[in-house]
Every structure is written in C-alpha cells, then in structure tokens.
Amino acid sequence: MKKGDQKELIKKKALLALEDGYYEYGVSAGADGEAFGEIIFNTSMFGYQEIFTDPSYVGQIIVMTYPQIGNYGYNDEDVESDSPKLEGLVVRELSKRDSSWRSQGSLQEYLKNNGIVTIEGIDTRALVRRIRDRGAMNAAISTEDLKPESLVKRAKAFPHIGERDLVKEVTVKEPYWFSKEGDLRVAVLDGGVKLEILRLLVKERISPYIVPANY
C-alpha cells in the first residue's frame, strides 16, 4: 500500500448502525464495502489476530474494547484458522504503526487484503454499554450507505445469527490429516475447531483426522 493510498483509506467516511436505531459515524480502517452481522464485544488487550481468525466469531461484528488495536501488526503464525472469520470490526483507534520483530505488516493492510470492513473513531465504551444493557443485536458497517435510517433498516432486516447454519460456513469440505506423526489416531469433527486445539493434540502425540461436521 502506498503512503498516499493509506491516507485516503484512513479518511474515508463510514457508518455503524444497530437494529435498535443507534448509529455513529467514523472512518474506514479496512476494506471498502459493507458488513452485516450480530454485534458483540471482546475485552482482550492483545491476541486480536487469534480472535479475528477464530471460527466461533463467524457471523459477528466484533467491537474491541481496548482503545488501540494493531500495535504489533500481524503475522502468518498467530492464527486459529486459514482466514479471518469475523464479519466486521469496530475499534476506537487502529494503530497505523506496527512495532514487533514478528510483524509481517500492519493490521490495516491485513484487514484490507482480507476484505474485512472496519470502522474506527467509534466511542466503543458507549457502544459496549449499549450492547451490555440491550443484548447482542444485528448491526451493519458501511462505507457506501451513509444514511442512518437506511442502514438501520437494513441491519434490522438482515437474518439473525440463529437463522443461519454457521457450522456449514466454517466446517471443512473434505477430510484431511492434520498430522500423521502421532501414536494415536483420532477423528476431529470440525464444527469450527481452532488450530491451537489441533496443535495441542499433536503435542500429545495424537494424529488428528479432520472431518466435516456432517461426516
């Protein structure tokens, strides 16, 4: 990403809208476009890359409560699946500088390259209090539809998480061996298994055979 492109990306206007009528303007800090899903929050101070790639977050827009996210960039090792699984991301501030010897690039580049619509400049404390008091609900992030009434209406009309077969969205399509080096072979029914679970099995000299959820 060129310096000029990054500046343009940071300043692009974006809108967050909840199905209960709450909305807030911010700026785009990831991919252009729209994201719809159940809005929830995560209170972790670090480990954002593991969170974003955790299959249990499929269908959800994540609000990170820690005020600045992305200070150590991203790498190809700290992942829990083959790609980000969240629908969208809401942050107070996305760090524009990654400072870690393990970093392979900025979090902003990672989000953009993986098509994750992200909004920053949001009062995440107020938003989290709202979610805490009213419960998780549908939400939308858009860099295209910047009319609050329209985006609120579309968020409300979007299928709720209980109406979607999320396991079908994350499970493997075909069986495969994660490792064959163990003394014991086990089948792992993939309903969204994290890579760390498989790594721990291998550490115990177990060979995991990953199979689809409908196997």
Keywords for this entry:
alpha/beta, single chain, 3-stranded mixed sheet, 27% strand, 7-stranded mixed β-barrel, 7 helices, 215 residues, disordered N terminus, 12 strands, globular
Give the gist of this structure.
This protein is α/β, with parallel strands linked by helices and 215 residues long.
Description:
The protein is of the alpha/beta class and 215 residues long. Helices cover 26% and strands 27% of the residues. It has helices at residues 3-11, 48-52, 107-113, 124-134, 148-157, 166-170, 195-203, and strands at residues 13-18, 23-28, 34-42, 60-64, 68-69, 88-90, 93-94, 117-120, 137-142, 176-177, 184-190, 206-212. The longest helix has 11 residues, at 124-134. The termini are far apart.
Give the helix/strand layout.
Blueprint lengths: L2 H9 L1 E6 L4 E6 L5 E9 L5 H5 L7 E5 L3 E2 L18 E3 L2 E2 L12 H7 L3 E4 L3 H11 L2 E6 L5 H10 L8 H5 L5 E2 L6 E7 L4 H9 L2 E7 L3
Parallel strand pairs: 3-4, 4-6, 5-7, 6-8, 11-12
Antiparallel strand pairs: 1-2, 1-9, 2-8, 3-9, 10-12
Q: Any idea what the shape is? A: globular
Number of helices: 7
State mean pLDDT (0 to 100 scale).
94
| Series of secondary-structure elements, N-terminal to C-terminal | HEEEHEEEEHEHEHHEEHE
Task: State the end-to-end distance.
Answer: 42 Å
- Based on the structure, what is the oligomeric state of the protein chains? single chain
Cross-sheet strand order for the largest sheet = 1-2-8-6-4-3-9
Largest sheet: 7 strands, mixed, barrel
Beta-strand portion reads 25-35%
Low-confidence spans = 1-10
Number of strands: 12
Instruction: Name the structural class.
Output: alpha/beta
